[in-house]
Amino acid sequence: MSRLARPPYIDTTTGIAYDTDKAEFEGYLTKQSMWLRDWRRRYFILKGSRLFFAKTPYEAPHGMIDLSRCTTVKSADLKAHKKHSFEISTPDTTYLLYADDEKAKDDWIGSVGRAIVRCSSTYVTKGGAQGGKGGNGNNLGTMNEDYDDDSSDYSNSSNNPYFND
Predict the structure, then answer these.
(1) Per-residue pLDDT tens for 75-107?
(2) I want to staple 52 with a disulfide (CB 3.0 to 4.6 A). Which of 61, 87, 94, 112 is the partner?
Protein backbone atom coordinates (compact mmCIF):
# COMPACT_ATOMS: atom_id res chain seq x y z
CA MET A 1 0.00 0.00 0.00
CA SER A 2 1.48 3.35 -1.01
CA ARG A 3 1.48 6.43 1.15
CA LEU A 4 -0.11 9.65 -0.08
CA ALA A 5 2.43 12.24 -1.12
CA ARG A 6 2.54 15.42 0.94
CA PRO A 7 1.87 18.55 -1.14
CA PRO A 8 4.92 20.77 -1.78
CA TYR A 9 5.62 24.07 -0.07
CA ILE A 10 5.13 26.97 -2.51
CA ASP A 11 7.26 30.02 -1.70
CA THR A 12 4.88 32.96 -2.14
CA THR A 13 7.76 35.36 -2.87
CA THR A 14 9.55 33.37 -5.57
CA GLY A 15 6.89 30.90 -6.68
CA ILE A 16 9.35 28.03 -6.19
CA ALA A 17 7.80 24.69 -5.17
CA TYR A 18 9.80 22.69 -2.61
CA ASP A 19 9.25 18.94 -2.32
CA THR A 20 8.49 17.97 1.28
CA ASP A 21 8.22 14.18 0.86
CA LYS A 22 10.84 11.80 2.27
CA ALA A 23 11.75 14.05 5.19
CA GLU A 24 14.95 13.47 7.18
CA PHE A 25 13.12 14.23 10.43
CA GLU A 26 9.54 15.23 11.18
CA GLY A 27 7.05 15.61 13.98
CA TYR A 28 4.95 18.00 16.03
CA LEU A 29 6.40 21.04 17.78
CA THR A 30 4.74 24.12 19.20
CA LYS A 31 5.95 27.38 17.65
CA GLN A 32 5.51 30.95 18.80
CA SER A 33 3.76 32.96 16.10
CA MET A 34 5.65 35.90 14.66
CA TRP A 35 2.91 38.51 14.92
CA LEU A 36 0.63 37.67 17.84
CA ARG A 37 3.28 35.83 19.89
CA ASP A 38 0.82 33.08 20.80
CA TRP A 39 1.84 29.41 20.72
CA ARG A 40 0.59 27.16 17.92
CA ARG A 41 1.12 23.43 17.47
CA ARG A 42 2.53 22.70 14.01
CA TYR A 43 3.86 19.70 12.13
CA PHE A 44 7.52 20.27 11.19
CA ILE A 45 9.32 18.64 8.26
CA LEU A 46 13.12 18.78 8.03
CA LYS A 47 14.42 18.17 4.52
CA GLY A 48 17.90 19.21 3.48
CA SER A 49 18.58 22.77 4.53
CA ARG A 50 14.92 23.67 5.01
CA LEU A 51 12.53 23.28 7.93
CA PHE A 52 8.91 23.42 6.78
CA PHE A 53 5.82 23.68 8.99
CA ALA A 54 2.17 22.87 8.42
CA LYS A 55 -0.97 22.47 10.50
CA THR A 56 -1.05 18.69 9.95
CA PRO A 57 1.25 16.03 8.45
CA TYR A 58 -0.85 15.83 5.27
CA GLU A 59 -1.39 19.51 4.45
CA ALA A 60 0.87 21.64 2.29
CA PRO A 61 3.32 23.48 4.54
CA HIS A 62 2.54 27.17 4.97
CA GLY A 63 5.95 28.24 6.26
CA MET A 64 9.66 27.54 5.88
CA ILE A 65 12.85 28.30 7.80
CA ASP A 66 15.92 28.36 5.56
CA LEU A 67 18.55 26.68 7.74
CA SER A 68 21.38 27.81 5.44
CA ARG A 69 20.83 31.29 6.94
CA CYS A 70 20.77 30.05 10.54
CA THR A 71 23.52 30.83 12.99
CA THR A 72 22.47 28.77 16.03
CA VAL A 73 20.07 26.24 17.44
CA LYS A 74 20.07 25.98 21.22
CA SER A 75 18.02 25.37 24.33
CA ALA A 76 15.76 28.27 25.34
CA ASP A 77 13.63 27.13 28.32
CA LEU A 78 14.18 30.34 30.27
CA LYS A 79 13.89 32.66 27.27
CA ALA A 80 10.64 31.08 26.07
CA HIS A 81 9.30 30.42 29.60
CA LYS A 82 8.40 26.91 28.42
CA LYS A 83 9.76 23.48 29.24
CA HIS A 84 11.50 21.59 26.41
CA SER A 85 11.96 24.75 24.33
CA PHE A 86 14.68 25.76 21.91
CA GLU A 87 15.44 28.56 19.52
CA ILE A 88 16.56 28.65 15.91
CA SER A 89 18.28 31.94 15.07
CA THR A 90 19.00 33.71 11.79
CA PRO A 91 20.57 37.16 11.48
CA ASP A 92 17.03 38.58 11.13
CA THR A 93 14.75 36.35 13.22
CA THR A 94 14.73 34.07 16.23
CA TYR A 95 12.15 31.28 16.15
CA LEU A 96 11.01 29.90 19.51
CA LEU A 97 9.67 26.34 19.63
CA TYR A 98 9.01 23.66 22.21
CA ALA A 99 8.74 19.90 22.04
CA ASP A 100 6.51 17.51 23.98
CA ASP A 101 9.40 16.17 26.07
CA GLU A 102 13.14 16.57 26.67
CA LYS A 103 14.12 13.68 24.35
CA ALA A 104 12.16 15.18 21.45
CA LYS A 105 13.77 18.57 22.14
CA ASP A 106 17.26 17.03 22.08
CA ASP A 107 16.44 15.11 18.88
CA TRP A 108 15.24 18.29 17.16
CA ILE A 109 18.25 20.34 18.31
CA GLY A 110 20.56 17.60 17.00
CA SER A 111 18.79 17.21 13.66
CA VAL A 112 18.50 20.94 12.99
CA GLY A 113 22.08 21.49 14.15
CA ARG A 114 23.39 18.84 11.76
CA ALA A 115 21.41 20.43 8.91
CA ILE A 116 22.90 23.85 9.72
CA VAL A 117 26.42 22.41 9.79
CA ARG A 118 25.85 20.52 6.50
CA CYS A 119 25.07 23.75 4.67
CA SER A 120 27.91 25.61 6.36
CA SER A 121 30.93 26.58 4.27
CA THR A 122 33.18 24.98 6.91
CA TYR A 123 31.61 21.52 6.65
CA VAL A 124 33.91 19.01 4.97
CA THR A 125 32.86 15.47 4.03
CA LYS A 126 35.09 12.41 4.53
CA GLY A 127 36.26 12.74 0.93
CA GLY A 128 37.32 16.33 1.56
CA ALA A 129 34.51 18.00 -0.41
CA GLN A 130 33.16 21.19 1.07
CA GLY A 131 29.54 20.99 2.16
CA GLY A 132 26.64 23.29 1.57
CA LYS A 133 26.33 26.48 -0.38
CA GLY A 134 28.38 28.36 2.19
CA GLY A 135 28.09 31.99 2.99
CA ASN A 136 26.20 31.75 6.26
CA GLY A 137 29.22 32.33 8.46
CA ASN A 138 28.66 29.18 10.51
CA ASN A 139 31.43 27.19 12.06
CA LEU A 140 31.45 23.75 13.57
CA GLY A 141 30.48 25.29 16.91
CA THR A 142 26.99 25.92 15.56
CA MET A 143 25.47 22.95 17.40
CA ASN A 144 26.41 24.28 20.81
CA GLU A 145 23.82 23.87 23.47
CA ASP A 146 23.12 26.63 25.91
CA TYR A 147 23.81 25.15 29.30
CA ASP A 148 23.04 28.28 31.24
CA ASP A 149 19.45 27.01 31.35
CA ASP A 150 20.52 24.54 34.06
CA SER A 151 19.50 26.85 36.89
CA SER A 152 17.46 26.58 40.01
CA ASP A 153 14.52 28.25 38.20
CA TYR A 154 13.28 24.78 37.27
CA SER A 155 10.70 23.18 39.46
CA ASN A 156 7.75 20.88 39.01
CA SER A 157 5.64 23.11 41.20
CA SER A 158 2.34 24.24 39.74
CA ASN A 159 3.16 27.65 41.24
CA ASN A 160 6.06 28.16 38.81
CA PRO A 161 4.80 30.87 36.39
CA TYR A 162 7.46 30.17 33.77
CA PHE A 163 6.36 26.88 32.34
CA ASN A 164 3.60 25.70 30.03
CA ASP A 165 0.53 27.30 31.49
Answers:
(1) 999 999 999 999 999 999 999 999 999 999 999
(2) 61
